[in-house]
Amino acid sequence: MGEVVVSCSMCLLVGRFREEVSLPFAFQFTAGAIAGISEILTMYPLDVAKTRLQLQVGKGGAGQYTSISDVFSKIVKEEGFAALYRGILPPILVEAPKRAIKFAANEQYGPMYLKWLNKDKMDQSTAILTGVTAGLTEAFIVAEPELVKIRLQARENAGKYRGTIDCVKKIYAQEGFLAFFNGLEATLWRHAMWNGGYFGSIFAIRNAMPKAETKKGELGVNFIAGALGGAIGTALNTPADVVKTRIQNHLPEHGPMKYKYYLPGVATILKEEGFTALYKGFLPKVLRLGPGGGVLLVVFDQVTTFMRNNFM
Fold this sequence. Notes:
Blueprint: H1 11-14, H2 25-54, H3 68-79, H4 89-116, H5 124-153, H6 164-175, H7 184-208, H8 215-248, H9 262-273, H10 282-311
C-alpha cells in the first residue's frame, strides 16, 4: 500500500479530540491492520495502473497506455481480470508487521519531539516532523515487499513469475540478496514526504473545519481530512515514487542501471522526458491515496469505536 498509515499516537492528529480511554497497543495494532488491508483491497487496481504508467519511458508510442481506463481495458483484454490484482500478496503480508513497527515508532516519536521541543501538545510543525520520522521508519520494512510487488505488476514481466514466492526465489537466485534493497533510498524519500505532507496537512485541515457535533459529522470530517491529506502527500512524493518504481523494476538483462538514487533519477527524467514525466501515474495514485486516506481513517475510527464499546 505504501504511503497510507494511521498510528495510535497520530489519533491526536487525525482521530477524535474528545476525551476517551486509550486503547491497548494490541487493539490499536489490530485496528490499524484492518484499516490498512481494507484500503488495499478497495484501491489496489489503481496501484497497478499507477505502476504501469510510471514504468513507461518517453512521451508516448505504439502500445503505450494513454489513461487509467486504457490501462484497465488493456490489462483485462490482454492478461485477464486477475492481473488487476497481481502483486497484491506482498503488501497484504507486510501490513501487520508494518503496523507493529509503525505504532511502536510513533509511540516514541511524538512524546520525544514534544519533550525535545519543550511543547505541551502537538502542533503542525511537530506533526510534520513526527510524520516524516515515522515515514522513514516505515520505509525500511516496505521497500523489499514493494520491489516484489513492482516486479509482479510490470507489464514486461507478465509470465516471468508464477507468483510471489516464485518471484522472490528468482530475484534471489538471479540477482542476489542485496537486490531486494534496490530503491530503498528513493523509498525513504517517498515515505518521508508523504507522511510529512499527510499528517501535517491533516492537522491544519481539521483545525480549519467546523467542529463536528455528531458522529456522522465526525466521520465526514475524518474522510475529508484524510482524502485531502492523501492528495497533498501524493503531490509531494510522486516524483520519488516514479524513480523508486523504475529502480525496483530494473533487471540484469536491461543492462547497466539507469536510475540508482532519487535526486540523480529526477535529474535524468527531467533531462530526457521533461517535468511532467515526474508525475506519471499521478492520477491513479491520487485517486487511490486521496479517497484511500479517507477510507483508512473512517475504517480505523469505526473499528476502534467498536473495540471501545465492546472490549473496554
